[in-house]
Amino acid sequence: MIALHARRSAASVAAFAECYPKRPLALVLTGTDLYRDIRTDTQAQRSLTLATRLIVLQLDGLSELTPKDAAKAMVIYQSARVLTPGQRSARYFDLALVGHQRPEKDPLTAVRALLRLPVELPVRLFHIGAALDANLAAEVAALGARDSRYHWLGGLSQAATRQRIKRCHLLLLPSLMEGGANVLIEAVTSGVPVLGSDIPGNRGMLGADYPGWFPVGDATRLAEQILAAMHEPDYYAALSSHCAERVSLLSPASECAGVCSLLELIR
Fold first, then answer.
1. 8 in helix, strand or coil?
2. Residue range 113-127, pLDDT digits in tens
3. Residue ranges per domain, the chain?
4. What is the CATH number of domain 93-249?
5. DSSP H helical segments within the chain, as ranges?
6. In whole angstroms, what is the distance from residue 181 CA to residue 85 CA?
7. 2-55 pLDDT per residue, tens
């Protein structure tokens, strides 16, 4: 059995372990598992105990596990097909913010950063994601209404989202927690650098030394980094080159090799 989510799949994991105690059971841990549920939820903790193999989606995920659990864990990075960078606006410096509107994604920090940028700057923030949390979405909409440079596009298909990302100059990733953000992968494999919150799930994707991290919730620092990316070619080049170094790690071939290694281990 290969299960996704320690807490959400807890009943299935327990049932499989009871019916087939000698068969392998691999468990893929997400951001809510690593950075919330396995710390406090007894069902999630039991899933870890029952699993014969654990999979985390970025390197820093291993540090959230006990030594006993880390010994049976492996890292498999998710992937995305490489896209040729799109034609980017010469008039505007475009920012992408991608993620359904829910508290873990913290879209307010990105919009607050936009409001801190000088009003005369030719910046556009394209926000993609469905309004899953009505109260948060209303707060974001009210804040965004104060700046005509904010554009909420709602929920889009993956293909349409990737096309929008690849035409932007930066991806903003202000999340409070991530297990290994797909949208980061989609940006990097489209040649779009990232400005992201300094959380383990992001650091585990691009490294602790990546120059695009900002403190969680720090809209002022994010605004400063956007300005630097706009006006300091060396800074933007450093972001881009660091992301480019990770493209092969985030390729479908690399993910396939990781999954094949997992299957060999649990045969």
1. coil
2. 999 999 999 999 999
3. 2-78+251-265, 93-249
4. 3.40.50.2000
5. 10-19, 31-32, 38-40, 42-50, 67-70, 107-116, 134-144, 158-166, 182-188, 200-206, 219-231, 233-244, 252-265
6. 20
7. 999 999 999 999 999 999 999 999 999 998 899 999 999 999 999 999 999 999
